[in-house]
Amino acid sequence: MLGCLLRGGCSPLVCLLALLLPLASLQRQSQHGRRGHAVRDRPKLLLVSFDGFRWDYIDRVPTPNFKIVMNEGVMVKQVESAYITKTFPNHYSLVTGLYAETHGIVANEMYDPALNRSFSMETDSMYDPRWWEEAVPLWVTIQKAGGRSGAAMWPGSDVKIHGMFPSQYLQYNASVSFESRVERIIEWFSAPKEEAVDFGVLYWEEPDESGHIHGPQSTYMDGVIVGIDEKLGFLMNELKKAGLYEEVNLIVTSDHGMAQQSADYIIELDEYVSRDLYTWVDKSPVVGILPKEGKFDEVYGKLVDANPNMMVYRKEDIPEHFHYRHNVRIMPILIEAKEGWTIMQNRTEPFMLGNHGYDNTLQSMQPVFVARGPAFRQHYVKTSMRSVDLYPLMCHILSIRPLPNNGSLLNVKDLLSLEPTPPVPSAPPRVNNDSSYAPVVGSVLGVAMVLGFLVVYIRQVTLKQLPSLRHRSREMSQPLLQGDLHL
Ligand SMILES: *[C@@H]1O[C@H](CO)[C@@H](O)[C@H](O)[C@H]1NC(C)=O
Ligand SMILES: *[C@@H]1O[C@H](CO)[C@@H](O)[C@H](O)[C@H]1NC(C)=O
Ligand SMILES: *[C@@H]1O[C@H](CO)[C@@H](O)[C@H](O)[C@H]1NC(C)=O
Ligand SMILES: *[C@@H]1O[C@H](CO)[C@@H](O)[C@H](O)[C@H]1NC(C)=O
Ligand SMILES: [Zn+2]
Q1: Which architecture, in CATH terms, is 44-258+360-415?
Q2: 414, 416, 395: which is closest to 404 by C-alpha?
Q3: Higher pLDDT pick, 425 / 36
Q4: Alpha carbon of 317 to those of 111, 311, 320: distances in Å?
Q5: How many CA atoms lie within 13 A of 341 on its CB side?
Q6: Does residue 348 have its Cβ closer than 6 Å to ligand 3?
Q7: In the beta sheet, which residues pair with residue 354?
Q8: Helix spans in 8-121 (H)
Q9: For residues 252 and 50, is the Cβ–Cβ distance under 8 A?
Q10: How far apart are CA 336 and CA 338, in angstroms?
Q11: Alpha helices in 97-177 (DSSP H)
Q12: Distances from the Cα of 160 to the Cαs of 110, 123, 167, in angstroms?
């Protein structure tokens, strides 16, 4: 415009149009280019948890679908879950990479003295975001980076955490079949590019439920495990039918294992200390004890040497390697039963033949881990990892900058395919999503384009030669966008 007026060599209207048209087309292109890029190129990942699927279940009956995933991908023999080896703490560790003391979901049943509130996975108390907001789950982080996520009943995924739900999610309802959960997940992954999810989480209650009722040693479990393998087969088949099988990285794991219990191995706390002296916060086999005001010494003194089949810890004496001390939701006294033992107040309480929650270094507490997909090596067996290492691994696969966590990518890098994955532009985590700065980028590009156009225009008029504007604008936009966004 300025050039035109100064030179006075063309009609102002033509000149204005000549300036605005390429500018508009560039803005449109940069937005589409950026969006299209992020959606098309961000790798896809589906994390599946079969609750309570112990590491060795895959070898006790034929599990052909697990074997296919192992052969086409990777398997880790020993995965150390986070302490305590219960469902809610570990599902949150898987998606945050944090030990329970740091992510704040320290048990399935909790009391927070600062909030003066109780949490139970079986009541609506679990929908209070304050329980969850000591950490940020991966689905929130990926959405803040401009990606999308979908959750089918993963613990915590129907809670509004840091102001966000997953882009797509289901309200928890145990009656919804595995197959319908899979159908929804497949829908979300295969939605049109702008809406398709990049990261999915899928949860199923079995074989945990049957393991509790029948005990892991029961032959009844054989059929249950076969059933889970068939469910995995269903999922793989649905991924194939939707054309997603080669594209989606699939991780199948669990929150913990399962130990056999016996009605002969019961500890009754009423034998040692009056229940009037304390509140019983979390259940067997790792029991949180909150002594009544002024009763700590009495309760601890009566319990500490009461029974050789339980360890009684003052909070500050909980072994360092459990990483289970630094949170007000961990009770002043923690009782941990030895493997196979059940702690009750008295024998009238319901007894289960299988349970978990014990020491996370026990083999019986370890979950299964198999994975396949473009990010993973093939036919590779790894000896061990910690479940907190999964988070940095998933962030790496998704090209998301991990938040501070207790895992280590270095520990699990050997699971990844040796071929370097192409760099993927993705926004760093930020409070606002990319729509808030896209116009700024657009404007900067716009101004650059106007200047560029002027230079080109002057050259054009001078040299009587017309270079391609569209081509040029693309060249200009790429380095700017990628330089800004590449991690
Ligand atoms: C905690 O809440 C209960 C009701 O749930 C109330 O009775 C009690 O006084 C509260 N305690 C404190 C210290 O605020
Ligand atoms: C839970 O799912 C079942 C099976 O799909 C359905 O019949 C029931 O209405 C659902 N319950 C709620 C509260 O949505
Ligand atoms: C066991 O505890 C229940 C309360 O939970 C009580 O009603 C019952 O009398 C107790 N039984 C014995 C044998 O102490
Ligand atoms: C776990 O990670 C968090 C976040 O970086 C950190 O604050 C905490 O100290 C770590 N815990 C351990 C045991 O290293
Ligand atoms: Zn569980």
Answers
A1: 3-Layer(aba) Sandwich (3.40)
A2: 395
A3: 425
A4: 20, 11, 8
A5: 19
A6: yes
A7: 260
A8: 12-41, 64-72, 87-96, 100-103
A9: yes
A10: 7
A11: 100-103, 138-144
A12: 19, 16, 11
Could you tell me the distance, in angstroms and rounded to a whole number, from the CA of residue 140 to the centre of ligand 2? 26
CA distance 298 to 277: 8
Out of 102, 141, 324, 408, mutate this one to test ligand 4's pocket (max ligand atoms within 8 Å of CB): namely 102
Output the CA torsion 279→281→283→286 (10° steps).
-100
Smallest CA-to-CA distance from 216 within 371, 385, 363, 386 is with: 363
278, two tokens = 């304390």
Catalytic residue check, 253: no
How many CB atoms lie under 10 A from the CB of residue 356?
30
Residues with beta carbon < 5 A to ion ligand 5? 51-52, 87, 208, 255
Beta bridge partners of 120: 109
The residue whose two tokens read 């072994």 is 319
Whether 17 has a pLDDT exceeding 60, the answer reads: no
Joined together, the tokens standing for residue 128 give: 């209070």
The pTM assigned to this predicted structure is 0.81
Pairing mode of beta strands 117-120, 109-112: antiparallel
Coil vs helix vs strand at 451: helix
CATH topology of domain 266-351: Gyrase A; domain 2 (3.30.1360)
Q: Is 102 in the pocket of ligand 4 (CB under 6 A)?
A: yes
Nearest Cα residue to atom 5 of ligand 2 = 176
List, for residues 166-225, the tens digit of each pLDDT value. 999 999 999 999 999 999 999 999 999 899 999 999 999 999 999 999 999 999 999 999
Is the model's pLDDT at 82 over the cut of 80? yes
